[in-house]
Amino acid sequence: xxxxxxxxxxxxxxxxxxxxxxxxxxxxxxxxxxxxxxxxxxxxxxxxxxxxxxxxxxxxxxxxxxxxxxxxxxxxxxxxxxxxxxxxxxxxxxxxxxxxxxxxxxxxxxxxxxxxxxxxxxxxxxxxxxxxxxxxxxxxxxxxxxxxxxxxxxxxxxxxxxxxxxxxxxxxxxxxxxxxxxxxxxxxxxxxx
Length: 193
What we know:
0% of the residues lie in helices and 52% in strands. It is mostly beta strands. A hairpin with a 6-residue loop joins strand 1 and strand 2 (10-11).
């Protein structure tokens, strides 16, 4: 097996492990995140009631905690976790009304609260952090059928105005931080490529 490292040289020492079921419910749009403190978070949309839910595996543990509800309205797009340089955990996702909502985790009370509404008419959100710490979010504006990006300012705790990345239907963006400090974005375009 070969791991694509840009030079096609890195060999994988061992194969993938066995599949480990995390949820017995019918679910979709998962996102997993490993925190700086060692905890692992998993969010997904539970299809029985369309709730955005989460499971947590604490650092050093081999088992997942119970399923907890984050929000009672979840669109089809996957939620995306991100952590600020200060270690504050966020989760953003598009709800059933296609509003891109940014939640913040309170480590003291172990609860999620709404931090900000990033934008409306958003679908397929993806986050990427540059090596310099700058946080980006890209999403499809479903009214304009175009891919946009916003940048988070940690000092003011605000998101920038939207910047057009690609006009025309563009979906499922993914940021790529390159080893040489280059920062790229890949996405589907109009269903043709």
